[in-house]
Design a protein that fits this description.
Blueprint: H1 23-36, E1 40-46, H2 54-57, E2 61-68, H3 71-80, E3 86-90, E4 103-108, H4 118-128, E5 129-140, E6 154-158, E7 164-167, E8 178-186, H5 193-196, H6 204-209, E9 219-226
Parallel strand pairs: 1-2, 1-4, 2-3, 4-5
Antiparallel strand pairs: 5-9, 6-7, 8-9
Length: about 230
Amino acid sequence: MSKASQIPDYESYHYATEWEGKNLNDAVEKTIITKWIEPSETCLELGGGFGRITSSLQPYFSEVVMLDFSSRNLGEAARHLDKKKTNLLRCELHQIPFRDDAFDTVVMVRVAHHLQDPQVVMKEISRIAKNRAVVIISVPNTRIRKFRNLRQSTLVAAGKQGHKIYAAPLMSYGHSSFEGPQIKSAGLFETSLSKKLAGLKFLYLLDILTSPIWMFKPTLFLRYQVRK
């Protein structure tokens, strides 16, 4: 069975609704990413969904390419992104349709936990990233859960649309050409409480200030620099 044939039914899944009322989480993730990126020519975002992060990347690059497998997500993204700066492409991530050394920056947020074999995608990221490119990836923090002793990627849950959730050792999300990582954390308000506090947007600063204390939060952001 091909990797593509294992992809869940994203067309009947309205991902944007998952982010309704999650203003604090949204602000934290965008702040971490935009403080880490280096303005340059080209940026590739993998699994960009409805363009939530993409909109924050656009001001920093001459061209942004966002990939997603869901036509529904891409349609929503097209309605609010700057079409002059961002190209949207439907594809899966195990064979990225770009030449070697094509991008200055690669971003992948809230995708890693769906990868059965993260190393396949990490290899592709290394291939299409330029020397000295910045790579930013968010991953589940398995060190604070019962999966901390994992030695390989393991299926831990499955959703109604066929979404599969995997836990993997932190080292699974790197590559021999990646230098680093720098690590920050997010998810202080990654609970139902976040929606109740959504109007108090300044609270996201508490998550930002404690982002270096990554051992106790559910989401990690990894920043690498590619060395070829």
